[in-house]
Amino acid sequence: MKKVIIAEKPSVAKNIADATSAKRQNGYFEGENYLITWAFGHLLQLYDAKDYDPKMKVWKMENFPYIPEHFLYKLKSGKGDGKPDQGVVRQIGIIKNLIDRNDVDGVISATDDDREGQIIADEILNYIDTKKPVERILLSEWTSEEVQRGLDNLIPNTQMQPLQDAGFGRQIADWLIGINLTSVATLKYRQNHEYHLLNVGRVLMPTLKIIYDRDMEIEHFTVTRYYKLTGTFLKDQDPFKAVYYEGKNEKFDQKQDLERILALVKGHDGEVIGREVKEKKEYPPYLFNLTALQGHITGKYRGWSSDKVLKVAQDLYEKKLITYPRTASVVLDESLKEKTARVFGIQKKSSPYAEEMKFHTSKRLFDSKKVESHSAIIPTYVIPSKLTEDETKVYEAVRNRFLAQFMPLCVVSDTQLTIRICHEPGKYLEDVKGLFIAKGKIQKEAGWKKVEGIDSKETLLPPVQKGDVLPMKKIVIEEVERKPPKPHTEKTLLRVMETCGKKYQEKDEEEMMMAILSGFSIGTPATRAETIKKLGKAGYITRKGKSLRCTELGRLMVETFPAKELFDLEYTGKLEKTLSDIEKSRFTKNEFLGFIETFVSQSVDKIKQDQHFGGEPLHKEPVGICPECGAPVLENRKGFGCSNWKNGCKFAVWKDDAFIRSLGKKVSYDMVKILLEHGKVGFRKCRSKKGNLFDAYFYYEKDEKTGKYSWRLEFI
Hints:
alpha+beta
């Protein structure tokens, strides 16, 4: 008798076939003991609302909230016409025919060992409604040895019920939120708006809020300055710099405080009253989980998105070159020590630093308590023969991070010199209370940094000893402008999503790791990249280089959308944590869905009653007369435009005017009304880029050559 194995993708089915000597047939592989076939992701999908009830074919407010009594599945549709994809129909038929064969006595689910992978096979088996026993193979890589080991250690698929509940619970929750809130929001707000579809999602909204919050930090940032006093001292004609400190402070808000010190110390020597040398050992970074790998690659290479990193990593996994990439763990399970030793022995052979490497099993590398479902990403013992340029970048990053764990630690020597200004040795300036401090670092042993290709940036100090008296060559007051925070990139955004907005310092690595593994996050490693992609498609964010910024629509959603809980990082983190708890049998699917249904009903009611999305209601009366053609100028969601636009008049004043916003002001109805009546409008306390306040008249003038309008200032 034989068993049917269902893999998640054809490439994985091929790996299993290679390990079991099965031969290719039409839509499957056949061997002595196994029939191996495949899905290609989800072959089934939840019913659309219209599949349950014909009246849902047309969106009407009175039909929402819509919550089916039972959730049903259908074959995945093709090109948006609602008809089943013919490739899906064919593959489902092949799977059913194989399972129904008389020489088959069981089924093995071989999809990915995570929430989504579990339900990919379970959807198929539920749809086919097989009565034959189903077993589960759980693997983190698809090498021949691992496949054989997995087939020898099958477990009943019934043991995966908690993971299945979490998977189906997530799927249904996202359907309920997406279908109901997207439909009702679009119906409610599309009148008199340019928005055709408002995409609302459980993970989409809090991710948008993270980007919005950073935009607001940048927009409301007040430029301030501080001052530092820097002296250049000489040791045998070798110059080095030291900064003036009073206590632990080297930043002074008032320049005159340092001008007084400069006048006192100028022309005097400095005596070295302290020389402290500390030797520090630096550990290599932890192994990669998916978020860290995505951040590493998108930060290092231009043109990479987190979605692209995941796709390339998934390809490497299916080619048996790395372990399962969709993981939150940065350490390895202790059961993998022997296997890891073998991988290390094979991988190090091609490294120029092989002689320096030594295998170890420290808790920093192997710790089962810090592993959630899947261990960190490492290479397998299979050495690639041919990789694309993209595959090489991701594979080498994983391989180098793995080998770095077995290199010597990086050793650096930190030196701090303390200098006091003196008349002569031992006699100091009494009016100068502070000290000059110089800091330097010398890398004594590069260690693991050689494998990672990290060049150490060293601040070298000359061989100065305690008691040396050093002439001061130069002394200056430096003005430093405090910089606003930078816009989020995919690297920084993924990090915030992973920790649900919680900030952890390096010293809090352990706390951060356990928080990630608890499931308290926004999305999962597998879904975060797709979420960022969806935000762009929905028109909520825009990308400039690596920077991610909110669009006007994105801002409107955060500021005025009535279902505020969706933008609450804490709330979303609790939902994701609940799904994680379902996996651990601490919470039930039905309890979770009951909570979601209540939330959906309440949110739909809030949207129906809302009167303020997009800000205050629009003024219906004209704001003024168009300076171009004399027609009335009317307010819309994006600005104030000429009502004669259909005949070609392009006059408009945009609400989201970047120049006006950069000065800390906004374009309002009253402001445009004054502008159109008087030809100018006054603003008080505008803020320049350098943080200076000023008053000015603003003129909105047309360039006769280009036909475009722009602002001209006249200072008051």
